[in-house]
Amino acid sequence: MNETRRDRDAEGRARNARPRDGLGRPLPYGTPGVERQPEGVVRTPPETLREAQRLLDAGMPFHAHEVFEDAWKSGPEDERELWRGLAQLAVGLTHSARGNTEGGARLLRRGAGALDPFAGSGPHGISVAGLCDWARELAGRVESGPTVDAAAEAPRLRG
User: Fold this and answer.
1) What is the pTM of this model?
2) Is 34 helix (H, G, I), strand (E, B) or coil?
3) Which H helix or E strand runs over 56?
4) Which of 9, 81, 116, 128 could form a cystine bridge with 15, CB 3.0-4.6 A?
5) Cβ distance 48 to 68 under 8 Å?
C-alpha cells in the first residue's frame, strides 16, 4: 500500500508546508520561497487594506488574496461579498501573471461583478468603481495573450 503523508499544522490539520514563490506557486521542498501569509488573522479593514496593498505592490497578489480571504471569513456578514470580490481580483491578477489568461480574465470579471453593488458606497475608502474598471480593462488585455507583470499591474485599493 502506497501511503502519502500530508503536511500537518500543530493542531493536526492538513497544511501544505511547501515553499511558494511570489505568485503562490509551490516550489520543491528545501527551496527558498517567500514568506507565507499566516492564515486566520483577524485584522481591521484598514489593516487588511494596508497589508493587501503592500503585497500587491510587491507583485504578490496570491498572498494579498489570502489577506482578503481572512477578512471575508472573519468580517461582518454584510461585507463578505466585498472582501470575496477583492480576493477574486487578487486571484485573477495571480492567474494572469502566471500565464493563465482565460482563468485570470474570468476571475477578474467575477470579482468586479461581486464588487459592483459596493460601487456607490466605497466602504473603508476602497475605490470600488475604480477597481471594477481596472479589473475589466485588465481582463480584456490578458485575453489577448500577454502575461502581465503582477507588480506593474497592481491596482490602487483606495482612491
Assistant:
1) 0.85
2) strand
3) helix 45-57
4) 9
5) yes
